[in-house]
């Protein structure tokens, strides 16, 4: 069996968003999927090493990546590494996928699935806060999977914001760069926050029909959303987690003092769960999970 070593472009080509969303749904339904707790090893200088295994009845994967916040705004990506895919029956490596590409695309696919299920106004306009790799992947995924026509982009880097705006226009979307994301909340029922999560980027209260996918903060010490915003969503709408593991990792929720033990995860709330009549803003808190990387590996293998 030949081994395929895929770079970023080749990895992305194997992971179209419709196939990724389908693979994520399949992982959520598959009782053979096993996902051990990930290892997060702090490194000198504030970086972290992540070791994230997962398996099903056919393949086993491990994502091995570094997260280096100090690289934000530089030519070096904050996430670097690989996803290694093994054949369980033979023990052979089948694929080595580009880790940052897998992370960006599977995270956006999970957010898209949540938006398809829970967003009261899936046509937007969409506000993206953070114009890095996750901002781009969420833009492309939402443009493919939702009836979007308009997007607002906010970033602390003007150059990054303009670059992402150019990509949005290529996708046929009416696009505007905004300097105040809080002000944009009033006109955007779709929101994605995908920043380095070193400080609060949204403080205003969302619209009653808002859907917010918050993906930047994935440790207890990280935060993107003001506590009052988080508590407002919990009190007047719904907070949904990507997985139960987020109860221990979601800095936005923990720092807001939310009772996370009773929060539902994506797998607990399939389409048609009888809650469609619920009103109020929806906060989807995503912290990442090796099961999503397993879904990407399944999609890549075909």
From TrEMBL:
Name of the molecule in the record: Ornithine cyclodeaminase-like protein
Domain of life: Bacteria
Gene Ontology annotations for the cellular component aspect, listed alphabetically: cytoplasm
InterPro entries in the cross-refs: NAD(P)-bd_dom_sf, ODC_Mu_crystall, ODC_N
Pfam families noted in UniProt: OCD_Mu_crystall (PF02423)
